[in-house]
């Protein structure tokens, strides 16, 4: 995170900074992911929050049990 996090207490809402433990922790809590899962998604789609959320949502839909 940048110095703005230290000043405002907010994380960047557009990008996940994998070099900052607080940023990783925040987004793991926000998305209910383990650190390894979050880093795996970021390695696939990049650090943009929108892309990470979209990938995570698609992954949830694919694994959603279908009952007929």
Description:
This protein is mainly alpha-helical. It has one domain. It is built from four helices and no strands. It is elongated and about 45 Å long. The termini are far apart. The N terminus is likely disordered.
Q: What's the SSE blueprint?
A:
Elements lengths: L2 H6 L12 H11 L3 H11 L3 H15 L5
> What percent of the residues sit in helical stretches (DSSP H or I)?
55-70%
Total number of helical segments?
4
* SS content category: mainly alpha
- The percentage of residues in β strands lies in under 5%
Sheet with the most strands? none
Mean pLDDT: 82
How far apart the termini lie comes to 46 Å
Write down the domain tally. 1
Question: What ranges have pLDDT less than 50 throughout 5 or more consecutive residues?
Answer: 1-7
Output the radius of gyration: 14 Å
Give the tally of β-strands.
0
Question: What pattern of helices and strands is seen along the backbone?
Answer: HHHH
Shape assignment: elongated
